[in-house]
Please model this.
Amino acid sequence: MKKTLQLTMLLLCLSLWAQAQKTVVSGKVIDTFNNETIQYATVTVLNAADSTLLGFGHSDKDGKFSFTAGTAPKFLLLITGYGFADYTDIVNSGSSGTLDLGNVILFTREKVLSEFVVMQRRGSIVIKGDTTEYNADSFKVDANANVEALLKKLPGLQVDKNGQITAQGEKVQKILVDGEEFFSDDPAVVNRSLQAKAIDKVQVFDKKSANAEFTGVDDGERTKTINLQLKDKYKKGSFGKVALGGGSNGFFENQAMFNLFRGKQKFSVYGIAANTAKIGLSQNDASKYTSSGSSMQMSDDGDMFFIDNNNDDGTSWDGQYNGEGLPKAWEAGAHYSNKWNNDIQHVNTNYRFNRRNIETLDNTFTQYNLQDSSYYTDQHSTSFSSIDKHTLSGLYEWKTDSASMLKFTMNGRKSNTVNRTGSETRSKGVSGALLNTSDRTSDNDGTRDNVDVNLSWQKRFKKKSRSMFLQLTYNNSGTNNEGYLHAANTFYSDGIQDSTTTIDQRKKNESNTNTYGAIASYTEPISQKAVVEVKYNFSSQGNYSRQLSFNKGAAGDYQQLDSLYSTDYNFDVTTHRLGTTFRWNYEKLSFSFGAAASNTEFRQFDNLYNREMNRTFHNFFPSANLNYKLSRQSSLRFRYSGYTQQPTVTQIQPVRQNTDPLNISVGNPNLKQEFDNSISLGYNSYRVLSGTYIYMGGGMSLVDNDISRSETIAASGVRTYQYVNVDGNRSSYLYAGIGTKIKGTQIQIGANTNVNVSRYNTIVNGAANKSDNNSYTVGLRAAYEKEKLIDFSFNPSVTYNYNLSSINAQNTSFWSAAPEASVLLYLPKKFQISSDASYNIRQRTATFDRNNNVFLLNASVSKKLLKGDQLEARFAVYDIFNQNLGFNRYGNGNTVVQQSYNTIKRYALLSLVWNFTYTPKGNAADGAASQIEEIQMSGK
Model:
């Protein structure tokens, strides 16, 4: 009896203890795709160990649920709702007696079925709506390869030798890491510094505008984007890379990056010092800023953006390296981003410092085609350019409530530049007789400051697709340059010296651009599928430019103002624009059309001569956009847009530029704004099961009042050109690509083509000139891979260029070829041998008859060391046969140019690369979560 009583008391205590250990489960069920809460959803909690029922409840009219459940170390959560796919998850119960699940997202069955998913061994490719998602672990790369090596493996993506990425034939404009801008999405930092093994998925998609993503109202804007999704392991620890390299002829390549990620909080720093041009020389944020040589454009959607134009004063170098000369680069940066308070607040900041020095030896041979003759110039030049630049960008987002968001962005830059140039130019006629000679030196020291600020507010209303967007913008750009120009020019008649001139001047240039803008838009649903948008834009841009030239006086000072080559000018542009767009969205089809009208006022004032000019322009902007999903794996898109471009202050101010005494530019205060009509069409398809992809597209641009040139070429060979408006300028392009994997093999094959056709109208010595500049490229691709044995690729291409000038019906045509191949062999003892080769073949012509063919061969041997192959020792030789030649040939207008320059040639490099990773205890190792194999297939 006593034992029975004790057992009864024990059971009673256990029962009371169990009741005391009940857990309150709460949360909210939502459908983010349709911006709605979900009511009457059933929420069930089971014991994850034995699937016994612990409790259940239902969501109320606001999607919220709260109920008491039994306790267990881990819960199996099951949520079901009518019309929605079942949601399951395993969660820790915690020890506080409460379990707040936050927002739980359900997807409609229709949405889930629209996602065609194929996961081969450990995953391969997932197509979700308009997003192609690659499982990174399914594409084998070297243990410590960078992201660029991974991207080269992905079907439908191409990465050229400069690191530029193309996806389905379109240039990738933005690269994100976990949805965040990372060092201002500079591909050199992201692709060549981050480790491929840290990447879980690579997502390729057409990113909608920030306003469209928030409001759910598609505005038709798209940006080709790659998002690198990190593995969970790397979100909870630190990882990085240190690379040290030194070699022959003074070459060095050093790099370090450290990443500390804690969930949504990311901190990264990096540093680079190199003169090999392989890292640290890409600069992708130039378009974020304006300059004295930039012009404002208004897109068909009414958004303002800026296009950089080359300044004729030679001061526009921005530190970018395009392969010309011998570079040295020092760079450092820091990144911090975080989301907190249930993602209500978000901050993202980037800072970078760059120092880049480039020494260049250049030889440029130019053929000028005139009505009844031609003449040629041969220019030899040396230059040294240096820039120190600080850039800072920041973003702050605050979701003030579930339907509103405030966003602030800032970009700033400060730079100091130094340019030193010396050149010798000789011009000759067809007979070979001298026309002129010019020996010139110039130096310029300058500063440049830029700041760009945006403040926006977005609001979603309770009624679906009803929204409001407000934005204020401010941009300021200023330059200050000072330097000297020295030139001795000799002119000949029938090969006999006729006259000489000298230039000895001090140049002082100042410019400033202030732009204020505002955008207001409102969307209203007019049916379940249709939305109308009304949008107003305002912009006020003030440009000030002072370019002063001082001649050297008898006393040796530079105090005599040369008014012919000096200006003090104000150019203000004010634009009002109002437009309406109608948008329809169906299951497979979305399209829109609209129209807008604008009023633009030019106010010009010449401060030197006290002259004023005011003009007004009116424009009408029709627009159309269509996206049609032919199947789950293919889509078709069409777009028509129109935008205006204003002349720059450099083009419109009435001043002569004599920095090149043989090519003098003259501004034109009567210039009108351009209007560009742009049409594009594209198609892409990817069949996952066969590994076959197809993409094709094309477009055309027709420009009214295009800002072109009217040239007057004297018998002495001096060319004076003025900016003028012309009609009839056009350009068009076509591209296509196809690829597949040969069934039963590891061989991938593909082909691609690009066609560019343009007509450019100018005036030469009073006669209209039509210049056709066309290029046609065909390329092939073949790749074979056997894991841990060989990786081989072969990519040949051929290009044909055709240039025709109507004033003398003389065409210059030539072809070039560039076959490229690479191989990587895996050897025992963790040795690897790799090699890549390219053969650049350029056809000789009657004018350009020198041999410019170049065969480049690089090779390396490497050895993996330490646990996990974290350390790599590598010895490489580049340009083994010492044949590298800087070379460029192109046609433009009535000129054909061939340029050769010094560039990096043969060198050897010994490197040590250490990739390190630290993961706190308890985190899964790489690949642990990918052991679950799943195959879901629907449709073909």
Notes: Residues 1-20, 114-123, 281-315, 922-940 have pLDDT under 50 and may be disordered.
